[in-house]
């Protein structure tokens, strides 16, 4: 979607430095190698003609006639479609905890400075579109509207409202609890009326809740995102879920029958279950094969968010945590350092057990890919020790480490993600007629996808920006 104008953007962005010049009527970027994720081909000495925020033409060399187009020699840079993070909680800030009537109440704070920081950092790493899978309905709608109106600089966002769950206590601005007065269907319908395109269904819901939520979402033209506990991914797929997130299944029904009783009797609450499930799991068991086949057959999209669990499983590695923290907003880092983290209370033995099963988690992700499950790349930003933008390159590198070809991972982060979001008619590819969302790199990223973080420039709706300017002031 076209940013209204650069001048109006600057007027809206009080105290923010300029990050680009307004595009000319036509801009011709040449000297490029265009990387096509869908075909895996690289076309050297290419050009991209941009007009009115869209790609007007592509080709090799220079066009014989280019009229009044302003020429930009990008000197051998690589160009690929703007990246799509399908799991980014952009509007979430620090988490607060208070006690009311001896019951804990959690609250996700929304801080516009943190939102601005996150949006600009995402862009600076070439992320031009995100799916926000849960947060304040009001704040998510606000960001999307401001961005559409040209009043906010950041990636385009498609979004869900508050996560829908049953639970023992409230989590304000992040979770809406099902009550006798507000059913799953009621909550989904209200979020649809507010403009949400997705409904996120959470771990405390049972099969009847899921069926009700999925049915109501589809009735309103919404898609559903699932993060499940005891309900298996296989069952959720049969119920009609559209997308499943996190490579951390915890359902006993996905374990061999002879291991379920012990798992249920010994598992602990919270994130500790993640590695305890993998300890009990047999990835060559028929339950896993059936799960993968069912997900693929039902076209259920999966994003693994491995980078969200690495800081917990390796949470005793201060070097790892610090390398992420230096790229996140200081108030978020302070919140994580003060105790809001997935590995809170873990002991040395817990870290050792978690690290031991990490290769098994990577293996499951590879099996999902090999089994034909449609996959995208998501980071779970703004959860603990996930840096906006930078963690996208880490997530892609982890998929490559799992044994998934780089070309497939690039598709997951671009064209496959666009298709999964229903936006492939305008983003996810460099071809005439598409929106000019383009990532420029100094070198071919395929040998090592961590290189995707080495951004030379990013174009969003035809406006070219540099990482340095996007990150200035933070």
TrEMBL record:
Keywords: Signal. Residues 79-462 form the Amidohydrolase-related domain. GO terms for molecular function: hydrolase activity, acting on carbon-nitrogen (but not peptide) bonds. The keyword Phosphoprotein does not apply. It comes from the Bacteria. Residues 1-20 form the signal peptide. Coiled coil: none annotated. InterPro entries: Amidohydro-rel (IPR006680), Metal-dep_hydrolase_composite (IPR011059), Metal_Hydrolase (IPR032466), Metallo-dep_Hydrolase (IPR051781). This is Amidohydrolase-related domain-containing protein. The lineage of its organism: Bacteria, Pseudomonadati, Pseudomonadota, Alphaproteobacteria, Sphingomonadales.
């Amino acid at each position: 979607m076209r940013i209204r104008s650069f001048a109006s953007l600057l007027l809206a962005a009080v105290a923010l430095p300029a990050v680009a010049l307004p595009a000319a009527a036509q801009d011709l970027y040449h000297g490029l190698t265009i990387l096509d994720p869908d075909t895996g081909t690289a076309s050297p000495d290419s050009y991209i003609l941009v007009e009115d925020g869209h790609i007007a033409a592509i080709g090799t060399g220079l066009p014989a006639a280019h009229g009044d187009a302003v020429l930009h020699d990008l000197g051998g840079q690589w160009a690929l479609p703007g990246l799509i993070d399908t799991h980014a909680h952009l509007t979430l800030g620090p988490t607060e905890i208070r006690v009311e009537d001896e019951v804990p109440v959690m609250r996700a704070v929304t801080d516009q400075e943190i939102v601005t920081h996150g949006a600009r950092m995402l862009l600076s790493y070439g992320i031009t579109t995100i799916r926000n899978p849960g947060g304040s309905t009001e704040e998510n709608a606000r960001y999307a509207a401001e961005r559409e109106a040209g009043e906010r600089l950041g990636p385009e966002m498609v979004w869900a409202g508050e996560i829908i769950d049953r639970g023992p206590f409230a989590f304000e601005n992040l979770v809406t609890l099902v009550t006798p007065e507000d059913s799953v269907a009621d909550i989904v319908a209200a979020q649809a009326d507010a403009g949400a395109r997705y409904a996120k269904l959470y771990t405390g819901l049972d099969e009847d809740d899921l069926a009700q939520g999925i049915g109501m979402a589809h009735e309103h033209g919404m898609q559903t995102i699932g993060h499940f506990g005891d309900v298996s991914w296989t069952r959720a797929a049969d119920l009609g879920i559209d997308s499943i997130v996190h490579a951390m299944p915890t359902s006993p029904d996905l374990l061999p029958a002879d291991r379920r009783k012990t798992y249920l009797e010994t598992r602990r609450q919270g994130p500790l279950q993640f590695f305890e499930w993998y300890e009990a799991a047999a990835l060559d068991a028929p339950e896993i094969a059936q799960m993968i086949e069912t997900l693929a057959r039902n076209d259920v999209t999966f994003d693994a968010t491995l980078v969200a669990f690495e800081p917990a499983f390796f949470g005793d590695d201060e070097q790892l945590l610090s390398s992420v923290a230096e790229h996140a907003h200081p108030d978020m880092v302070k919140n994580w350092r003060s105790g809001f983290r997935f590995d809170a209370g873990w002991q040395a033995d817990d870290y050792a057990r978690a690290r031991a099963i990490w290769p098994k988690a990577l293996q499951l992700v590879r099996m999902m890919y090999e089994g034909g499950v449609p996959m995208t790349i998501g980071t779970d930003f703004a959860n603990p020790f996930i840096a906006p933008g930078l963690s996208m390159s880490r997530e892609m590198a982890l998929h490559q480490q799992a044994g998934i070809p780089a070309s497939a991972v690039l598709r997951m982060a671009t064209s496959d993600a666009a298709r999964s979001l229903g936006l492939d008619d305008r983003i996810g590819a460099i071809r005439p007629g598409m929106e000019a969302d383009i990532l420029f790199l100094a070198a071919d990223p395929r040998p090592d996808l961590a290189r995707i973080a080495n951004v030379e420039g990013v174009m969003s709706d035809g406006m070219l920006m540099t990482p340095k300017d996007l990150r200035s002031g933070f």
